[in-house]
């Protein structure tokens, strides 16, 4: 299926920024005409263009989130495609991949078409991850070939890992034949045994059922073996343990076709946060001790983990106010992802800004099939890469000097379940440009 998007009319000139181009960062102006980047250089002149002064800012490709829960259809009280993509745009994202654990599940062409239709005019491009199994029940495979014809490139039962190894193997084989990627929520439910926090000091101290790291690592190991055997493409969602990172590192060295993502909360928070019994800190996989987060950071820095993904998971206040073991897992992530990652990886670890854009934009776009080299689903424009002449203008402008304070009530999501309430963060998204349209200007949505 292809969709024709009307490119924004008019011209836009970004002046005085540091542009992440094909030859590295350079001080330059960027001219955008009819949704396309048409010139990059110093002293550009376009009398009829809208001018945005971006001196002191970084101009790079818009971010791509591999893991967004938009909740629609079925859970619109927590989030909708409209509000979720507004949050995405405010966070600098020009494309998101919608997870399938909606109601009804994204396991049929009818529901996938409906989500694509709703996303066609959203503030970020919406790609869809199809369910691996019907109803995400882990038994009968979804009509993957039919969904693939609609452009679905990623299949996952996110929220629940595929427990039956035989079903996982068949699904991996189908994905290989379709040229798609099998994406796994790695959690062996038999080992997890109903644990709601990391098994360790804090689970014992608070009397909450714990989930050991091996619950994640056992499924990581299983799927790596299966992917290697079949030659299939495997993507591992929200890795959170030291053992998982080591398994992926060794698998890549062995030539297995695996990519992986990590969520900012797993490298900026620890399980000590749950001491308050506040369910805003409940997430799946759970927050873990600091050495696991440090291992995730090491994996991001050395290329073992390819992408930062938000796992944006909005929930209504009344559900998050339930007792810790009864509340649903999940946190907001779209509007805080850049700042958290910038603080930990660039300011804290010395990662170059281009490296951070690789993790938030270029690599996720490649994994999702949204980069310039892919046969992009749904007729979408290219994302990731570098800011170069001839590309569709999917661009974000970052002010690394500025700081802001997180307030759940001021975020665009319908929900307010951010674990970073009141935290001052460095790095601000000034402008987000989608296909040449300024959808966020000076930190405010334009529609």
How would you describe this structure to a colleague?
With 447 residues, the chain is α/β, with parallel strands linked by helices. It folds into 2 domains: 11-59 and 388-445, Urease, subunit C, domain 1 (Roll); 62-379, TIM Barrel. Helices cover 29% and strands 23% of the residues. The chain has helices spanning 81-90, 109-119, 144-149, 165-178, 189-192, 201-206, 214-230, 242-253, 265-268, 290-302, 317-320, 337-347, 353-368, and strands at 11-21, 24-33, 36-41, 50-53, 58-61, 63-68, 93-98, 125-130, 154-155, 181-184, 197-198, 210-211, 234-236, 258-262, 307-308, 395-405, 424-434, 437-441, 444-445. Strands 1, 2, 3, 4, 5, 16, 17, 18 and 19 form a 9-stranded mixed beta sheet that branches. The protein has an 8-stranded parallel beta sheet with strand order 6-7-8-9-10-13-14-15. The protein has a two-stranded parallel sheet with strand order 11-12. Helix 8 links the parallel strand 13 (234-236) and strand 14 (258-262). Helix 8 (242-253) runs parallel beside helix 10.
């Amino acid at each position: 299926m292809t969709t024709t998007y009307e490119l924004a009319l008019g011209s836009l000139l970004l002046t005085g920024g540091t542009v992440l181009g094909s030859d590295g960062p350079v001080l330059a102006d960027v001219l955008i005409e009819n949704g396309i980047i048409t010139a990059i250089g110093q002293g550009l002149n376009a009398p009829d263009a809208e001018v945005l002064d971006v001196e002191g800012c970084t101009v790079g490709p818009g971010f791509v989130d591999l893991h967004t829960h938009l909740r629609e259809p079925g859970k619109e009280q927590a989030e909708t495609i409209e509000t979720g993509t507004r949050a995405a745009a405010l966070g600098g994202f020009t494309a998101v991949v919608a997870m399938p654990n909606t109601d009804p599940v994204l396991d049929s062409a009818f529901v996938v078409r409906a989500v694509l239709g709703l996303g066609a005019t959203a503030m970020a491009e919406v790609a869809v991850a199809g369910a691996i199994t019907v109803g995400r029940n882990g038994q009968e495979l979804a009509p993957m070939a039919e969904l693939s014809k609609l452009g679905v490139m990623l299949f996952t039962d996110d929220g629940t890992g595929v427990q039956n190894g035989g079903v996982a193997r068949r699904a991996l084989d189908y994905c290989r034949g379709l040229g798609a990627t099998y994406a796994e929520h790695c959690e062996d439910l038999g080992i997890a045994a109903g644990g709601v926090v990391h098994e360790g000091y804090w689970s014992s101290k608070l009397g909450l059922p714990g989930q050991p790291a091996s619950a994640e690592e056992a499924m990581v190991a299983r799927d790596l073996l299966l992917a290697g055997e079949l030659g299939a493409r495997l993507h591992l969602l929200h890795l959170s343990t030291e053992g998982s990172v080591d398994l992926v590192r060794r698998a890549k060295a062995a030539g297995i076709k695996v990519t992986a993502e990590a969520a900012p909360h797993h490298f900026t928070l620890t399980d000590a946060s749950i001491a308050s019994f506040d369910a805003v800190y409940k997430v799946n996989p759970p927050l873990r001790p600091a050495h696991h987060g440090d291992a995730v950071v090491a994996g991001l820095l050395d290329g073992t983990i390819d992408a930062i993904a938000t796992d944006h998971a909005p929930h209504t206040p009344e559900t998050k106010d339930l007792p810790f073991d009864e509340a649903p897992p999940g946190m907001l992530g779209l509007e805080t992802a850049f700042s958290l990652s910038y603080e930990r990886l660039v300011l804290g670890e010395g990662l170059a800004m281009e490296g951070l854009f690789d993790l938030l934009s270029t690599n996720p776009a490649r994994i999702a099939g949204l980069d310039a080299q892919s046969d992009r689903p749904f007729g979408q424009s290219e994302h990731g890469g570098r800011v170069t002449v001839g590309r569709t203008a999917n661009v974000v402008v970052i002010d690394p000097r500025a700081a802001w304070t997180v307030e759940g009530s001021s975020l665009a999501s319908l929900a307010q379940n951010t674990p970073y309430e009141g935290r001052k963060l460095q790095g601000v998204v000034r402008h987000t440009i989608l296909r040449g349209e300024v959808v966020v200007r000076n930190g405010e949505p334009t529609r």
